[in-house]
Amino acid sequence: MNEERDCLIIETEFLKGIISAVVHKVLEKKGLNTDVQLYDFAVEYREEKLHIHLNAEASINTEDLKKLLKNNGWYDEFKE
Question: Which of 20, 35, 48, 54 has the fewest CB atoms within 10 Å, i.e. the most exposed one?
Answer without folding.
Answer: 48
